[in-house]
């Protein structure tokens, strides 16, 4: 089951999603939320890793309304410019609706137990935060989400466990923004935010320019523990 098709809830069409299945049955599902590069090799590898941890993994193509099947990297300036242009054109609210549709599908996939959460990176980390405030996802994990300081007025909607991984030297998140995020979420039940010293944005993307093995291992261990505790 490498790919499935999910109908959009607004009736405008359908979109594809990469699916990776674990060996065991009756487990929770994780909706993987892409960076600005689409459902590329890195996102598929992350989905496979989640499946190896024992969860159903599903990664939807959120740029399908702009151009289906986008698969970029951060290896060239041209690809970076294309990725940022896609992000500027991306309708965030429509993306959340597509993620809700994916979440509903994830809960019904063969081998699942009906529980499902989200895990996002960069743009996906932002959207995972919004899924925590706007959806009934069972758990949400945000890796170096961008612009979260501008979303704090929605924090009152958080009902399920939320884990944030924040890079201390994130080139896209200022120190002022980071401190605002930490202060705005401090004391909220079920919310945990960890800052990883000395690392940049995308520190957990293996093979990326900012990869940091130590920080990624610690962050991923916290993620695995939370997912296992909530999703089974």
From TrEMBL:
Pfam families: DLH (PF01738)
Domain of life: Bacteria
Gene3D superfamilies noted in UniProt: alpha/beta hydrolase
UniProt-listed InterPro entries: AB_hydrolase_fold (IPR029058), Dienelactn_hydro (IPR002925), Dienelactone_hydrolase-like (IPR051049)
Domain Dienelactone hydrolase: 15-228
Keyword Cell division: no
Keyword terms of this UniProt record: Hydrolase
Keyword match Hydrolase: yes
GO MF annotations, alphabetized: hydrolase activity
Name of the featured protein: Dienelactone hydrolase family protein
The organism of origin for this protein: Roseomonas haemaphysalidis
Lineage: Bacteria, Pseudomonadati, Pseudomonadota, Alphaproteobacteria, Acetobacterales
